[in-house]
Structure formats: C-alpha cells, structure tokens
C-alpha cells in the first residue's frame, strides 16, 4: 500500500513497485490508510508523513497501538535527525527523505519484505536456530521474540539489535557495532538511533524498564544482554 496525497509521486512509486511484481493500492489520506489496513492489511506500507486528515506519524502511532506488525517505510521532506528518531520511536521500520531515488526505494522495499515475510515452507535446519538468554527467546527464522512464554512484538530494527545481542550474551556491543545491524536505514541514522531502539526494547522485555536487568548499559562502551538469574547467582 502506498499512502501519498501527491498523485504524481504516488503513480511514480506505483509504476516502480508494479515492475517488481507487486500489487499496489494507492491511498490519499491518513484516515483512509487506517480504514484500508483494518479491512485488508498489506504486506508493507509506504507512508508519506505529510498527508491530510491524519499525518503519517499519527498513522504509525495508531497502527502500533493496535499491535499491528505491518512493516512501515516512511517518506518525508523533513530531514532532521529528530524527525528520523521520532518516526523510529513511534514504530516505523525504515525512513527515507525526499527527494529520493526510486531505485533505492525499491531496494528498501525488498529488504523490508525479506526481513518480515515468513517462508511458506521453512527449510529444515541442522540445529536449533533459536537464541536463548534466560527466559528471553529469539527465533530468527520466525522473527519471533518471547519472554517467559509471553510473546513480544518487535520492529525489524529492534529485532536485529536484540538478535545481535542474544548471539553473544554477556558480551558488550558498542553502539557502532549495533549500528551495523541497521544498515537498511536512512543515512541520517546515528548512535542515538540505537539508544531509541534499546529504550523501546526495555519497555517490552524488562519488568521495570527504568531498572533493567536484561538489557544493560555499559557506560562509555555500549550495551549487553544478560540472564538476570545467572547474574544474581554470580553475585551470591
């Protein structure tokens, strides 16, 4: 679904997407986006920020409040870092600034779809791919996260950071190293982007986000993921 009130821009994006074999629906305002998604959720939403009736940021806010996992790629004429971080903080999965290259947009679409689509018939694996750190479980194949059996919904960016940390429990990862996991994002991405994702992850996996036990800050270095039970046993 392409949410864009500029008809020329919308048709340009439509043509490029259809060349890649996608079925495309154009929607021209924010409220219409919400109605359309609730009626039939698309595989991906290309969402302009500046739209009538409800802007793109409000649309993302509502979609995430409804626990929808729909991947969202935002398009905007705003190019400041604060705008980028706000979009990511609300739950956008990727962010491009206008003017943009249609070819780059198609590459971003392909990347998001690869990350969020489950294979129809998963290939057998020789070993268990699930990453476990105490009660925290991350399944890269199914793009699923759970804590103590409770399912946790993560954006693709959050998932990539969490999976990287879980692959090396108790290892400290620098912000720069974690930024490498977010290579599909906008060129305005910075270390603050990692901090935003970590803050959001703590809200989802910690009992007390302000006093984290799993996702820890190592001041001046970066972050690490640990098992609170093992950490308590070591202290004892």
From TrEMBL:
<dbReference type="GO" id="GO:0005829">
    <property type="term" value="C:cytosol"/>
</dbReference>
<keyword id="KW-0597">Phosphoprotein</keyword>
<dbReference type="GO" id="GO:0000976">
    <property type="term" value="F:transcription cis-regulatory region binding"/>
</dbReference>
<keyword id="KW-0238">DNA-binding</keyword>
<dbReference type="GO" id="GO:0000156">
    <property type="term" value="F:phosphorelay response regulator activity"/>
</dbReference>
<keyword id="KW-0805">Transcription regulation</keyword>
<keyword id="KW-0804">Transcription</keyword>
<dbReference type="Pfam" id="PF00072">
    <property type="entry name" value="Response_reg"/>
</dbReference>
<dbReference type="GO" id="GO:0006355">
    <property type="term" value="P:regulation of DNA-templated transcription"/>
</dbReference>
<dbReference type="InterPro" id="IPR016032">
    <property type="entry name" value="Sig_transdc_resp-reg_C-effctor"/>
</dbReference>
<dbReference type="InterPro" id="IPR001867">
    <property type="entry name" value="OmpR/PhoB-type_DNA-bd"/>
</dbReference>
<dbReference type="InterPro" id="IPR011006">
    <property type="entry name" value="CheY-like_superfamily"/>
</dbReference>
<dbReference type="Pfam" id="PF00486">
    <property type="entry name" value="Trans_reg_C"/>
</dbReference>
<dbReference type="InterPro" id="IPR036388">
    <property type="entry name" value="WH-like_DNA-bd_sf"/>
</dbReference>
<feature type="modified residue" description="4-aspartylphosphate">
    <location>
        <position position="48"/>
    </location>
</feature>
<dbReference type="InterPro" id="IPR039420">
    <property type="entry name" value="WalR-like"/>
</dbReference>
<protein>
    <submittedName>
        <fullName>Response regulator transcription factor</fullName>
    </submittedName>
</protein>
<keyword id="KW-0902">Two-component regulatory system</keyword>
<feature type="domain" description="Response regulatory">
    <location>
        <begin position="1"/>
        <end position="113"/>
    </location>
</feature>
<dbReference type="InterPro" id="IPR001789">
    <property type="entry name" value="Sig_transdc_resp-reg_receiver"/>
</dbReference>
<feature type="DNA-binding region" description="OmpR/PhoB-type">
    <location>
        <begin position="128"/>
        <end position="227"/>
    </location>
</feature>
<feature type="domain" description="OmpR/PhoB-type">
    <location>
        <begin position="128"/>
        <end position="227"/>
    </location>
</feature>
<dbReference type="GO" id="GO:0032993">
    <property type="term" value="C:protein-DNA complex"/>
</dbReference>
């Amino acid at each position: 679904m392409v949410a864009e009130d500029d008809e020329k821009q919308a048709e340009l994006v439509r043509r490029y997407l259809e060349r890649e074999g996608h079925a495309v629906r154009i929607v021209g305002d924010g409220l219409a986006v919400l109605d359309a998604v609730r009626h039939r959720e698309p595989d991906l939403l290309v969402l302009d920020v500046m739209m009538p009736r409800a802007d793109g940021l409000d649309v993302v806010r509502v979609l995430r409040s409804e626990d929808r996992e729909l991947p969202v790629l935002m398009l905007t004429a705003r190019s400041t870092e604060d705008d980028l971080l706000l979009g990511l903080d609300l739950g956008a999965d990727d962010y491009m600034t206008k003017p943009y290259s249609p070819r780059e947009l198609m590459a971003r679409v392909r990347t998001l779809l690869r990350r969020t689509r489950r294979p129809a018939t998963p290939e057998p694996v020789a070993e268990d791919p699930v990453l476990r750190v105490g009660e925290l479980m991350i399944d890269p194949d199914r793009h699923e996260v759970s804590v103590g059996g409770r399912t946790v919904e993560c954006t693709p960016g959050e998932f990539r950071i969490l999976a990287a940390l879980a692959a090396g429990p108790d290892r400290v990862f620098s912000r720069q190293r974690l930024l490498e996991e977010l290579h599909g994002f906008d060129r305005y991405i910075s270390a603050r982007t990692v901090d935003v994702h970590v803050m959001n992850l703590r809200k989802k996996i910690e009992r007390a986000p302000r006093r984290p036990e799993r996702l820890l800050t190592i001041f001046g270095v970066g972050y690490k993921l640990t098992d609170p039970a093992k950490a308590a046993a070591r202290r004892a």
